[in-house]
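Following up on my earlier thread - several people asked me to post the actual chain instead of describing it. Fair enough. Here it is, all 121 residues.
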Amino acid sequence: MDRPAVLLLEDSPEEATLARSALLFAGAQLANSPEGAVVAVLGKKALSEYRGKLKIPAIAIVPEITDEERDRALAAGVRAVYERPPTWQGYTALIALVLAEWLPEDPTTRKGSRPRPGRSS
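Reply from S.P.:
Thanks for posting it. Predicted structure:
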């Protein structure tokens, strides 16, 4: 059975390439639209423009973020904000953790197996 898909919303070509590579390395499938995804991973620009429009959980992985930006994102409905580690090993470990935490255990459903409170790392 296919793994649940992740929607990647990232405007920076460099960050998109890095995120796409890390997600694929971790075994994620990428979706082209929210309808085919169970979670959205937002980059820095998408995070700043997010207004709770997705019907799937949205999380952010960004190179750096201020406390004010993090608070604003969480208030807008982003479920979690993670700061991207500077190394490939750290980034892939974070992606593996994020996928384990945010993807449903049952890939036939779009909902996770348990409620997940907003958190920040």
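The mean pLDDT is 82. That should answer part of your original question.
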